[in-house]
Amino acid sequence: MEYIYAALLLHSTGKDVNEEGIKKVVEASGVAADDVRIKALVAALEGVDIAKVLSQAAVMPVAAAAAPAAAAAPVKASKEEKEEDKEAAEESGVEGLGALFG
Fold it and tell me: I want to staple 22 with a disulfide (CB 3.0 to 4.6 A). Which of 6, 37, 47, 101 is the partner?
């Protein structure tokens, strides 16, 4: 994670996201830098528009946060609605059996 954070920090300051920069940031944080991981990260980020990816990622949590809020408020169904749903499920099951036997 610290390598990704270093890359994001470099990007946010307007500097090039390269091996040397990431290594300096990671070492400045007190973590021993792993050259293989740094090279892999730089290779993975090659050709990636980080600003575009971040803007798309910023939209995703908003939609994801709305889903639990909607799920937290259960809707009470009336007895009639429950009976209609049960009948519909039974009918669809019968139709499926009819298709099997012809």
Answer: 6
